[in-house]
Amino acid sequence: MSDYYDRDDRRRGSHRRDRDDRDYYRSSRRRSRSRSRSRSRSPPSHRYHSSSSSGIPSAGMIPSAAAQPPLSNTGGLPLGGYSTTLSAQDKINRELFVGNTPPGTSEALLMQFLSGAMRKTNLCPPDATPILACRTNQKFAFIECASVDTANKALNLNGIPFLGASLRVSRPSKYAGPHIPSLTWQQLTGQPLPSGMIP
Known about the structure:
four-stranded antiparallel β-sheet, 12% strand, 41% helix, alpha+beta
């Protein structure tokens, strides 16, 4: 009788171990499937990767528009610097050198005289202000015209008599623009140079 119960206990123990093994196997399979589904759902990381065949960067490498510097047609120059360069060059193109000025010539007098001469010979409209500024020295001056076209026309003042001297009107040495054909004051007006005046 005792042997019978011992065999029965052994069979029960064996059945229990088999059931525990099956439960552990099922639990392990469920965990494995859960990890597989989790890995399959996670999106692939594409940041900072590029195509090795074409050399085209992927979406992660393309910089945003906000990070890009403003573009321009200035050959790489910043927009502010380009504007300053244009302004300085425009002023040079509007500036003229006036040589052989008599000592003590005031800026206001020279501006008034040259502007009146341009209006009188129709080099500018009667109500225009062709000369905006003037800087004088002992023997020469610089005048700033209202526009480049006005400066081109003011070149025809070359040789105009002023306080016993013949003024020399030309482009300054720093001018790098095209050559503009012009006449002398005598050719423009048909008046000869006053006697004894050196051109």
